Amino acid sequence: MQLKVEAAAQVLLGFAFCQTFGAHIPCREPSDAELESMLSRHLAPGVSLLAPMKDVLPDQDLKSCPVNVSQTSSRLQDRSASPWSYRVNEDLHRYPRRVLEAYCLCEGCLVDRQEDRSVQSEPFYQEVPVLQKSGWCEAGQYVYQPSRLQVAQFCICTFP
To answer: Is position 27 within any domain?
Structure first.
């Protein structure tokens, strides 16, 4: 009888400890395929944020304002009066983890082969759906919640 009481007490103490301090249940990251499937429910049909963008490569080092507009480049960002390039916006708690965003190369705009600061070069933003890691675990897997991210797409010339 004494053994049964001691065993029951150990079980109750173990239960109380888990309730008080929480039992550690391992939580895994969903696969990229699972996250892509969840994200696709928040996109227009046929759209993917992960689709490769033709001629778009992020810069390793940030570029500076060019001396003048390139009229021979095949890339719009080089021929623009408000030139831009791309960098990677990385967040390990978001899906997609890496998002390309534009950044303006000049403060002003290129006019007559020189930078004119009476006009401003500003990024044009678009809100895109992403999944943000919530920090909680459900059924052994981290939960991601739909969210919106403002992403610079290109740069335009504006009046101050």
So the answer is: no
